[in-house]
């Protein structure tokens, strides 16, 4: 590998054109880049409405938002705004569009390349061959690229490795504590703040897609048990219609005594407010979604329910972990630092497919078989309740 340790860029652009969780996991990369280049100016390009995880981030001087489906006029405006303004673009997503933005914006680039699991099926090999051809031009325009490994390499490690070409000794990248930086908190709305009482537990049932859902009756059992331990339960959710409905469905299943100890904050909190809510919690329990990563970044005990997604790739990072890989690929229960990851049984776990039918609205048997008792036992171990 050629090293560019003498390179001192004055202006950098980070590019993450995906979801809010994908933005949050770039924060260790931003921190590490700041250590490398303390005097440089950092900008960040992402999708409109997806950059709240960077609010108040001390290292980012400017946030640049774009539509996820820009029209010609917006492309032209963005082109003029970005054109050759930067010494270095750090492309953290393997999409063609992210690389196009990097090519327009900077004199030099490093980037993540998409990939497929190797050695599994002929279909996978065919996909990989096609992917290699699509990646050729991206490699050609970059000083350095990092291949995605959806099973063996953690996404935080993947992002940090984008900087390895700028180190004389690559081991320096992973020799000290690595942390995810949450956004700055904001005061809760009076309606929510007035209902809170300590100690409370934040429960976040809604994932982005249905195949990461845990069964409704299981949430009923868990929330009932939590309130029986003397904890108030705060149900959080995004403003998305399906998430609001899911929380309402959970509340409707609870008996009156349990309901008295539950606050439904669904759709009522911004990301910075969610950070403030979680920061004050005794415990957080959630599915495989961005808010679970935020909880882990807030340094509170975090229980994450994982189905098809490999924890070794996208498990919430335990803040302060030193090294490249906190997690095993498969374990019914594993705790590292403040994070406990729970998986259901089965040799197919984790498959990295969109559920058993490999589509967004699919069910996932591994989550159906991850029973409430397993979650309760993990909570008891963490809290000694």
Description:
It is a single chain. The chain has 385 residues and is α/β, with parallel strands linked by helices. It folds into two domains: 11-174, Rossmann fold (3-Layer(aba) Sandwich); 190-383, Glycogen Phosphorylase B (Rossmann fold). Helix content is 34%, strand content 17%. It is built from 15 helices and 13 strands. It has helices at residues 20-24, 27-36, 72-82, 96-105, 122-140, 155-160, 190-193, 216-228, 241-253, 256-259, 271-279, 290-297, 311-314, 365-368, 372-383; strands spanning 11-16, 41-47, 62-66, 86-91, 106-113, 144-147, 200-204, 232-235, 262-264, 283-287, 302-306, 333-336, 339-343. The strands form two sheets. It has a seven-stranded mixed β-sheet, with helices on both faces. Strands 3-2-1-4-5-6 form a six-stranded parallel β-sheet. Helix 4 (96-105) links the parallel strand 4 and strand 5 (106-113). Helix 8 crosses helix 9 (241-253) and helix 8 runs parallel beside helix 15 (372-383). The longest helix has 19 residues, at 122-140. It is globular and about 65 Å long.
CATH hierarchy class name of the largest domain: Alpha Beta
Supply the number of structural domains. 2
Give the mean pLDDT.
93
In the CATH classification, which architecture of the largest domain applies? 3-Layer(aba) Sandwich
Placed side by side, the strands forming the largest sheet appear as 9-8-7-10-11-13-12
* Approximate strand percentage: 15-25%
Number of helical segments with 4 or more residues: 15
Largest sheet: 7 strands, mixed
How do the SSEs run, as a string of H and E? EHHEEHEHEHEHHEHEHHEHEHEHEEHH
Helix percent reads: 25-40%
Oligomeric composition of the shown chains = single chain
Radius of gyration: 21 Å
Number of strands: 13
Q: Superfamily at the CATH H level of the largest domain?
A: Glycogen Phosphorylase B
- What is the distance, rounded to the nearest whole angstrom, between the alpha carbons of the first and last residues? 52 Å
The CATH topology of the largest domain turns out to be: Rossmann fold
């Amino acid at each position: 590998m050629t090293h560019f340790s003498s390179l001192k860029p004055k202006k950098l652009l980070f590019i993450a054109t995906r979801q809010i969780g994908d933005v949050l996991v770039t924060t260790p990369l931003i921190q590490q880049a700041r250590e490398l280049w303390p005097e440089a100016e950092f900008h960040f390009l992402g999708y409109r409405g997806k950059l709240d995880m960077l609010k108040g981030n001390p290292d980012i001087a400017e946030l640049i938002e774009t539509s996820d489906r820009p029209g010609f006029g917006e492309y032209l405006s963005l082109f003029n705004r970005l054109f050759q303004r930067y010494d270095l673009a750090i492309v953290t997503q393997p999409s063609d569009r992210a690389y196009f933005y990097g090519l327009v914006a900077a004199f030099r680039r490093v980037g993540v390349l998409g990939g497929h699991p190797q050695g599994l099926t002929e279909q996978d090999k065919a996909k990989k061959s096609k992917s290699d051809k699509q990646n050729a031009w991206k490699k050609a325009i970059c000083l350095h690229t990092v291949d995605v490994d959806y099973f063996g390499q953690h996404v935080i490690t993947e992002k940090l490795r984008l900087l390895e070409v700028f180190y004389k000794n690559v081991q320096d990248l992973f020799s000290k504590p690595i942390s995810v930086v949450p956004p700055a908190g904001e005061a809760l709305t009076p309606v929510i703040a007035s209902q809170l009482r300590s100690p409370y537990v934040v429960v976040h049932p809604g994932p982005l897609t249905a195949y990461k859902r845990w069964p409704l009756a299981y949430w009923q059992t868990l929330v009932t048990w939590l309130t029986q331990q003397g904890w108030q339960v705060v149900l959080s959710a995004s403003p998305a219609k399906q998430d609001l409905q899911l929380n309402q469905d959970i509340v409707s299943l609870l008996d009156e005594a349990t309901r008295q100890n539950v606050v439904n904050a669904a759709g009522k909190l911004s990301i910075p407010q969610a950070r403030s809510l979680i920061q004050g919690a005794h415990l957080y329990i959630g599915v495989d979604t961005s808010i679970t990563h935020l909880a882990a970044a807030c340094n509170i005990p975090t229980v994450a329910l994982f189905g098809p997604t490999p924890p070794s790739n996208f498990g919430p990072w335990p803040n302060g972990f030193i090294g490249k890989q906190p997690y095993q690929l498969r374990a019914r229960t594993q705790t590292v630092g403040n994070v406990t990851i729970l998986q259901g049984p089965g040799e197919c776990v984790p498959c990295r497919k969109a559920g058993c039918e490999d589509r967004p609205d699919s069910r996932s048997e591994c989550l159906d078989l991850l029973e409430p008792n397993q979650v309760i036992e993990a909570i008891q171990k963490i809290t000694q309740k």
